[in-house]
Amino acid sequence: MKKLLVVFCCLVACRTFAADGLALFQIGLKTYQENGADALLNTWYSTRDDADKIAALRTRLNAATRHLGTVVDTEVFTPRNLGKNVQRLYGVIYFEKKPLWIRAEFYAVGGRSGFISLEFSHSPDEILPLAWVALPP
Predict the structure, then answer these.
(1) CA 82, 75, 67 angle in degrees (round to 5)?
(2) Does the domain made of 2-133 have the CATH classification 3.30.70.20?
(3) Measured by CB atoms within 10 angstroms of the end CB, which terminus of the chain is less buried, N or C?
(4) Predicted structure pTM score
């Protein structure tokens, strides 16, 4: 009974915090490392509801990574909450030749959640918050 109460309290506490897509974001990057772009996109998006979005993202992602070699590692940075229902997530996929920087927005409301945007670039200046890429004075 105590275990049930602890689980219930955790669930209630989790629902009172901001949207949290961090675990799913990390899983997506790891699946990309192991199985490629389709695995990442199928982890983050519903193939039934987001088929057109997945196709467009797949085309862009494959074009951006075509000549980078194999994935060496992935990394996720501290997420930023944009209110209680939207979270901006940052990460990087390290390829043999150079990294690909990633920014995604995760939305959660009314028991539904998912990624609403995905941007990526070879330049961290285009993806990371300005404060992270600015040189110290």
Answers:
(1) 110
(2) no
(3) C
(4) 0.78
Q: Is the pLDDT of residue 92 over 80?
A: yes
In this structure, the dihedral spanned by the alpha carbons of residues 37, 39, 42 and 44, taken in order and rounded to 10 degrees, is -80
Q: What does the pLDDT average to over 29-37?
A: 92
Tokens linked to 92:
């990087």
Q: Give the orientation angle of helix 37-44 with respect to helix 22-35, to 10 degrees.
A: 160
For 36, which DSSP code?
Answer: -
Residue bearing tokens 């862009």? 60
Per the model's pLDDT, the better-predicted residue between 102 and 46 turns out to be: 102
Which 3-state string (H, E, C) describes 106-119?
EEEECCEEEEEEEE
Q: Give yes or no for residue 49 having a pLDDT over 70.
A: yes
Angstrom CA distances, 19 to 54, 74, 79, 104, 127, stand at 22, 22, 10, 13, 20
| Residue type at position 111 | G
Q: Specify whether the CB–CB gap between 114 and 53 falls below 8 A.
A: no
- Bridge partners for 94 per DSSP: 73, 99
